[in-house]
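hey so i finally got around to running both of the ones u sent me last week. sorry it took forever, my laptop kept dying halfway thru and i had to restart like 3 times lol. anyway pasting them below in the order u listed, first the sequence line then the structure token line for each. didnt double check formatting much so if smth looks off just lmk and ill redo it

first one:
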Amino acid sequence: MIFKTEQMNSFRRMAEIKFRRAVIDQMRADHPGFKSLTTEQQQSFIDPALAWARHFGFTSERALAFWSNVTWVLQPQWHEHVDLQPVLNDLAPSEPERLFRLKTAIETAQWNG
């Protein structure tokens, strides 16, 4: 059986929708403030978070979900923090290693407010 490009694109879109829904459900369960947003507001929050994660080379569901949660807890532009730039811009390590380094950098960074 050979799949056409259109079919593969359809599968990819379905998987993305399912993943976004799972992230939103998880965030609703873990963050009461997020749960109080409308579905449209939740989607408007998640989409840029996922785009930024991908911009920095994170592609696994674990990393994308982590990024979304950190964005909610800290602030939408948290990735601009100067202490995080060395980790975000170093694409050499594997994704799990980069995610571990990012988590460590977030925990040790000096945050205002």
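and the second one:
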Amino acid sequence: MQVTTLAELKDAARRQEPEILIVDKRLADRVALWNGLRLAANIVVFVILAVAIFMWANPIHWELLEGPDARLARQIMLGVGILLLFADYLLPVVRTYKVAERSPEGLKLVLRRPR
């Protein structure tokens, strides 16, 4: 299915079209940016949560990681990590579709999990 506007893209995503071709360059760039943001957020979630869990477990018994400031830093890091986990739900098109190819005619999206 070919789409040119965000409304058409949302409608096609709701219907779970197997393939979507975005022919509008600005919309295609926006969806590619959203896809990049989703990838970056997923990587950052794992890094933040790994560091926060390491700080919480404190296997090396550093005094620096046992104070009240370290506790606040851990809580903030865990909060940010959890918020980034839910950031995926703010971008429903890139959550259900992935970029298959970028061609001169547009950006082709396919379902991440085929029906």
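quick thing i noticed on the 2nd:
The mean pLDDT is 89.
anyway thats it, ttyl
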